[in-house]
Amino acid sequence: MSTETMSTVGMWSTAFVHVSCILAIMIFNGGITIYMLRKVLGHLHLRLGPTELGPAGIAQLIPDILKLLVKEDRHPNRTDYWLYCLAPAMVFMPVLAAYAALPFSETLIAADIHLGLLMTLGFVSLVPLGVFAAGYASRNKYALIGAMRAIGGSISYEIPLILACVVPVMLAGSLNLREIVLAQQASIWFVIPALPSAIIFFICALMETGQVPFDMAESESELISGFSTEYSAMRFGFMYLAEFSGNFVMAAIMVSLFLGGWTLPFVPDAIAAPIAPVIFVAKCYLIIFCFMVVRGTLSRYRVDQFAALGFKKLIPITLIWTLVFAIGFKVFTMWGGGA
Amino acid sequence: MDTQLAPGLERFDGYDLQGWLSPEPPEGIVVPRNLRRQSDSPHELPADHFLLNLGPSHPSTHGALRCILELNGETVMSSEAHVGYLHRGIEKLAEHRRYSALATLMDRGDYAASIMGEWAMVRAVETLGEIEVPARAEWIRTAAAEVCRLASHLVWYAALGVDTGAMGVFLYAIRDREDCLEILEALTGQRMMFNYLRPGGVAADWCTEADLKLRRYLKKADEYLDEHWEALIGSDLFQQRVQGVGVVPHDMALSFAATGWVARASGIDWDLRRDRPYGYYDKLDFDVHTMTAGDVWARTIVRFDEMKQSVRMLEQLIEMGPPEGEHIAKLPKVLRLPKGEAYGSVEGARGELGVHIYSEGGDMPYRMRYRPPIQYHLALADTILPGQMLADAIVTLASFDFCFGEVDR
After folding, report:
1. B17 to chain A, minimum CA–CA distance in Å?
2. Cβ B237–A140 below 8 Å, yes or no?
3. What is the C-alpha separation between A93 and B126, in angstroms, rounded?
4. What is the distance between the alpha carbons of residues A170 and A163, in angstroms, rounded to a whole number?
5. Which residues are within 8 A (CB) of B228 and not within 5 positions of it... i.e. 6 or more apart?
6. Residue B347 main-chain phi, psi, to 5 deg
7. Cis amide leading into B322 (omega within 30)
8. Predicted ipTM?
9. What is the value of pTM for the model shown?
């Protein structure tokens, strides 16, 4: 075997291992998030969530997932069949790819890409395409309205979402998520100098993941289940899984950009370094917990109010804030002699 | 090709009902006549409009309302409400029931606030038979009706939360409703369909258990209501959703015979409890809240205030205590009414709930007419839907608090 073949085999096997790990994380995350969602929403709603199966009802996950797996896979008549089958994958795959550049620790990254942040955001913004495909192919008016709303939402929130990332990128001088975290380790968490960006990012992440108050694409009381109305069994399961993974990806980006990634302040490196991935994941679930509290508390925006919020409020505010920050940052580095 | 179709069916040759994305209509699809828009013949559906069949099984039609909406994007262009999915022929059945058995039928009208329907019926019977009702019975009826009103309004509030996307408030409201239902359960033995009011009084006397439960509920009722205010009605997001939405102008409310809180939210100062007092209401001190805006917000505020007033009335009732005496008048076992007719009405949870009884003599009514306030409000809602966004249409429908047991009868 030549060295070239060896390296090709090595490359493919590494890729295979990476993708398998990411899939495992996705499924694991799906399980944790379902359980967490039920418990958190349950307690917010004066209920208990699952209690019967296993300690604190945690084994309830098993029949839930089994149910999705063994349910009859139905599809309505006269759908656009191939697109209908493809849509869950179109929702699922970009989220899977988005995991690649997430820095779980300094070394634990599937793909340490120089433009990691840009790539992750790019993949995440492909999700509405899959959502639209699902709504279009279902041949159901409720699904189609939901799909249209998803596209409309995507247009309104993508710009402020990306603008909100600009300030931490400016501070770190890099688009590589690992380097952004390292820059925070060297100075302070960027949530302190860039608090407005962090807040806007949080709002846009809620929009991105389609949660109350921004769940127009699904809005159960209006559109039954929006774009996923006609989906059942594991196809629906994939959409569900992608939604939860989307939550995790957005939380992970937020943790990397603003909350110091896998690092902890005032804790010596010797203690923090071995448990770096645990710290990172714990921070992610803290953000997801915040998403869930918002979801369990607020009521829903109307679709035009949602667009108005994106275009008339978030975009001007982020633009002005970014400009002010950029000028301030430039002045500071000129006079302060570099940061 | 002239195949025979069942009556009421028509060959479909217009637009594609399943999705407007495909330009060609499907071959040979047969649709029931009522699925077609009434305006089919005057004008064709414009190319960018489509029909949306909302209900009868839809998460937010609260019962069995079916609305056929013509949408242009998200905007409702026209609306056509279909009712009758819950029709049981209550009015016809009443012609074959003795007066004492009518309560079971009335329960199944406005099933969220059954006491109100029963009370309207017994009031009509008592007027016609000139029956004297003991004061104790009137006291119990008033207390039961106000608890029932609270239970019914809390369901409306819970559903309003869900329809605006705030799942959170639902179970908080249901928790309070549980307390109300427990009071009624202790009093009547049922949680719904009470079958409690009889011509001349009530079926069972006021009891200690109900008394204790009512006292326990009243202790925390104000705190709970404040909690509801904070959780949903006070929030900016909710106010943005409901202010200026689903406006019913004053003259429209008058011409559509709106009653109850719909009328009061549009500036019609009318409450049967105050203006035509019955039961124990003339001895109670309460306010009637009126607003002029006529939108969903005004209806929400008026109704929320009604809940507060109900709590106030119950507090006064408990303070007075039930007067001594019988809980039901001495009447013959089989009640026979003279020839004639009478109308009895109460301020129901959803407006003026009336029952008109026509008697030819004997122990059963010759004809009974049930006046469901919601039916009049449904016509109103159907009229104001066009021009709204789909999401607003859902909230507007929720704000009228439909109860289809009552509309379909």
Report:
1. 10
2. no
3. 71
4. 11
5. B157, B169, B172, B173, B176, B304
6. -80, 95
7. no
8. 0.80
9. 0.83
